Amino acid sequence: MIANYHTHTYRCGHAEGDEREYTEAALQAGLQILGFSDHTPYDFFDSDPRNRPMRMKPEELPGYAASVRALADKYRGRMEIRLGVEAEYYPKYFPRLLELLRENGVEYMILGQHYLGNEIGDIYSGRPCSDRKELARYVSQTAEALETGLFTYFAHPDLFHFTGSDQVYKEEMRRLCRAAKQTQTPLEINLLGLRDGRHYPDERFWRIAAEEESSVILGCDAHEPRHVSDPESEKKALRMVNELGLTLLDRVTLRPILK
Questions:
Q1: Which residues touch 60 (CB under 8 Å, ≥6 apart)?
Q2: pLDDT tens, residue order, the chain (259 aa)
Q3: How far apart are CA 6 and CA 217, in angstroms?
Q4: HSE-CB of 33 using CA atoms within 13 angstroms
Q5: Among 65, 84, 89, 71, which residue's Cα sits nearest to residue 5?
Q6: Which of 7, 19, 89, 241 has the most Cβ atoms closer than 10 angstroms to its Cβ?
């Protein structure tokens, strides 16, 4: 890998290390491009008692942005450092989110749809589920997100843990892959899933992606500085890429969200 756009920091509440530590680890690993994409704030949680320790708070965003920009200046000429976030697409709150990100000069977003609907009172995408209606909701909501043209790529698109009919899975996920291709949005093979032995990457999904000639990118999904380099998981991902005949990108073009 020469580029990783999926990097978290301590601010999300479930990762370790600050931006400098990730940058130093990325340099040692030989990366040319490091994109920070910590879990974006969603300010509707400020007043909600069910606030989950999974994303930074709105008041932390200015410090995060300033830290990444300072490192980009410091390491200019040695490594390209970019400022992004990983964000869910919640239609009710999305315009407000864009305002917040633009105010802080965030350069790009990657889509990570961890919950459906507008999150509160809705289901987690990664729980086992056999209901076609819920899978269809996931596909429709993420396709709508891609149609905004604001997401640089789709992180762990196979996060939805469908345990129902394989035929249903193929039909719905083919719809997702076609939406990604129509919007020219790369799909991420997630190395964290490989590292931890999670239910994703799901080979069923990537067979469909290969058939639909989807473009794919590897993402470290680093929650510790040492994971910006993960040779073993990278080897497993590359083996799958080669076996299935996937079209692998070594870098992506950022889709700016700034006006």
A1: 11, 41
A2: 999 999 999 999 899 999 999 999 999 999 999 999 999 998 765 555 555 568 898 889 999 999 999 999 999 999 999 999 999 999 999 999 999 999 999 999 999 999 999 988 899 999 999 999 999 999 999 999 999 999 999 999 999 999 999 999 999 999 999 999 999 999 999 999 999 999 999 999 999 999 999 999 999 999 999 999 999 999 999 999 999 999 999 999 999 997 6
A3: 11
A4: 18
A5: 84
A6: 7
Q: Fill in the DSSP letter of residue 51.
A: -
Q: What predicted TM-score, i.e. pTM, was given to this entire model?
A: 0.95
Name every residue whose Cβ is closer than 8 Å to that of residue 238 and which is 6 or more positions away in sequence: 248
Cβ pair 119, 95 in contact under 8 A:
no
Q: How many other CB atoms are there within 10 angstroms of residue 36's CB atom?
A: 29
Phi-psi label, residue 184: left if phi above 0, alpha if psi -120 to 50, beta otherwise: left
